[in-house]
Amino acid sequence: xxxxxAPPPVCPQCGQNDQVRRVGDLVQDExxxxxxxxxxxxxxxRPAAVIGCATSFFATMVSISAAIFATGLxxxxxTAPRTSLLFGVxxxxxxxGIITFLFVFxxxxxxxxxxxxxxxxxxxxxxxxxxxxxxxWQQLHYCARCDGAFLPGQASLTPVDQVQMLLxxxxxxxxxxxAPANAPPSGEGR
Length: 190
Description:
The chain is mostly helical and 190 residues long. The protein has helices spanning 23-29, 34-38, 53-77, 91-139, 163-167, and strands at residues 20-22, 141-143, 148-150, 158-159. Helix 3 (53-77) packs antiparallel against helix 4.
């Protein structure tokens, strides 16, 4: 295993690097310290639950209940003659029960599939954000002198309590840039 021989980057606030450490090293060396817990790596999101047998069972039970209700309601309100079907149920009642079962089963199952798709989309977005935050965390440095964290090239220091905001920012912080040579100093030219 080779050691990292490159010097740490310079702190954007104090301009020195003698108290600068990579955050990953700090967290690994002192995992129980309050500072390490504040600077801990981002946690990966949990994947969405998968539609399983319990969902299909629930959809079937709801559909059977709706079909029995629709069959009973049709049986009570129908004036068609009774047939020789089981329990003397009318043809229209059986047809209504079957159609109700099919529609309710498909509807309940579609609702679960829609919820699964929505949860999967949310997980994909959260996973992408976590992956980017993890990559930034690997580059993150901590200055003990200034008690702040920064990414190499970042123009300002981020307080330790705001590190998660830095990691999950949609745009990475802008690198430090020098002022143009012909620009007037601030306060002049107004």
